[in-house]
Amino acid sequence: MKKDLIIKVVVGVVLVIIFIYSFSGGQTTEEYIEEITKEREEQDLFMRNSSDSPFTESDKEYKGLEYYPIDIKYKVKARFIEIEDKKIRQLPTNDDQVTEYLEYGYAEFTLDDKEQKLLILENVSEESLFLAFGDETSAIETYGAGRYLDVTHQGGNSITLDFNLAYNPYCAYSYEFSCPLPPRENLLSVAIQAGEKTYE
Question: pTM to 2 decimals?
Fold first, then answer.
């Protein structure tokens, strides 16, 4: 009887480990932190040295980007809901222009016990997905006009949103850039304490 109980406990632990491992994309937490750290180091090198950096023609001194600590809680596996009747969406920009994107789908997830829903748009000309969002850190600890998140979708009814990779649009560093603002439905009712902070 005791032997059966031990076997059940061991099997349960193994299943939990398998679940965590598969959710993290086959990575350990340490490997994940190392990956995000490397991404941030590469971004810093780009900002500091690349001719495409927003600081290239700026009179501002580049002082390095500020981030929240890496937290695997903010790597979210969301439910993907495709939009069947896709429409063109016009997003205003920080300099009173308008940019157009095609509706792609919604990502639904729960964070801090609150249901959230984000609209994902498609940049048709670049064949890429576009996600801009604001949250309860906006204009306090993060850029007031929202942040961006690069996402990919391999099909199916799920999509991963890794807010540890959330970054500022270029207009956060210089007024010379035109940046789309988040659509109204992408203003989240939760604090996303992950990714890039306001650039001082």
Answer: 0.84
